[in-house]
Structure prediction request, 346 residues.
Amino acid sequence: MIVVMKRGVRAEAIQQMVERIREMGLRAQVIEGSERTVVAAIGEKRDGEQQMLESCTDVERVVPILAPYKIASLEAKPEPTCVQAGSLMTGDGHIGIIAGPCSVESEEQILESARAVKAAGATALRGGAFKPRTSPYSFQGMKEEGLKLLAAAREETGLAVVTEVMTPEHVELICRYTDVLQIGARNMQNYHLLQAVGESSCPVLLKRGPSATMEEFLLAAEYILDQGNQQVILCERGIRTFETHTRFTLPLASVPWLKERTHLPVIVDPSHGTGLASLVPSMCAASIAAGADGLIVEVHPHPAEARSDAAQTLSPAVFQEAVEVCRRVAEAMGRTIAGPQAVPVA
Ligand code: PEP
Ligand code: MN
Prediction:
């Protein structure tokens, strides 16, 4: 259930409501909206609870949440959420453009990437330091050394950093260097990891699992939200189907579908979604046309030399052109993408 508090209610009244909900054996989660504060009461529904909460002071109304995902649902929070992490803003009208190499490979590579994607219009830098690779014999990432290089790139360019965390034990370490924790597709249903990032105060980019349904995806986000971390970005990155012409199948209908049901920002990863660099610019434009709140795109100064995902990686020049097209598409849709100089030098 969602307890909608009256407009302008005092902090003590919200705290009292949280305690009341806990006394009833339910879990309470405060969700601050721009208009109103609501308190989600989560747990098994019992008779008379709704009336009991309705009778409390400073309560405007109590609404049952029908969706299985509670805090993520638009019923809980009708206004869109904007996730902000340093230079990255996504959701509630803001389009975030995250770009950079699949993996951090060297100081020169990540600094060159950061400068190039910033000049092309990116508002955040991606780069994997801990890499989930299908084969144990493939490059596994530079680990903490890679995190240090990402932090140096942020220091120089002012771009927020997005990097993957694969295990709960690494959350604290990675939070020291990054602005956004990425949960990779393979880990979408790693519930201990979801809870661990939910306990941190670092924004989270959650990728859809390649065989996850939309409901499973939203319930994975719910694991993070339920721990108190409200800064979650959903990322469609393609699913596995019978089709083999692309690495994955990129179902862009998931963008408007999600936006009809959740207040969380929804972004698209056309790099992993297609696996083919030549298709990435079109899918970037299509994602923006479909209403995406942002993109995450693999870009490398020398794509052919990339140590991972070379076939789907754009050169800075192609990426720049793709962002320009996206900017025009956004304008046609009555939206805007902040200009290339939007991110100040740190
Ligand atoms: C990545 O972003 O490089 C990555 C491994 O993505 P995914 O988890 O979507 O496969
Ligand atoms: Mn990759």
About this structure: Residues 83-337 form a domain with the TIM Barrel fold (CATH 3.20.20.70). Residues 102, 272, 298, 308-309 surround manganese (II) ion (ligand 2) (CB under 6 Å). The longest helix spans residues 316-332. The mean pLDDT is 95.
